[in-house]
Design a protein that fits this description.
- By secondary structure, the protein is an alpha+beta fold.
- Helix content is 49%, strand content 25%.
- A hairpin with a 5-residue loop joins β3 and β4.
- α2 crosses α3.
- The longest helix is centred in the middle third of the chain and has 21 residues.
- The protein starts with a helix and ends in a 7-residue tail after the last strand.
- 13% of the residues are buried.
Length: 109
């Protein structure tokens, strides 16, 4: 579990490096410990949600090689875990008083 949360944090850092916005509170950028805590929290919360709600059953119409149609059942997860995790990460940052603001051109940080 620790490895996955570390990988998620690394991915968020990499995505943040390419982003055109950043998390800011009172004019200060969010530091690594805050980002790591929210990343770990978001992963854990999304994981708990996925375990509690394994999926919604849906019917799928399929056709075999002979042309016969069959109806099977499959499970669809919604929302996707990565989207849900990002939502929880954003919520965590906002709860800590940070805002996701555009990077101002020419700003050196």
């Amino acid at each position: 579990m620790r490895t996955k949360s570390t990988l998620c944090y690394a991915l968020l850092v990499l995505l943040g490096a390419c982003a055109s916005a950043e998390w800011v509170k009172n004019g200060e950028l969010a530091d690594e410990p805050v980002l790591a805590q929210c990343s770990q929290q978001a992963w854990a919360r999304a994981h708990r949600e996925q375990m509690a709600n394994p999926g919604v059953p849906v019917q799928v119409l399929q056709q075999d090689k002979s042309g016969r149609s069959t109806v099977t059942s499959d499970s669809v997860r919604f929302p996707q875990a990565d989207v849900q995790e990002q939502t929880y990460f954003n919520l965590c940052m906002k709860e800590r008083g940070y805002e996701f603001v555009p990077i101002q051109s020419g700003a050196s940080r």
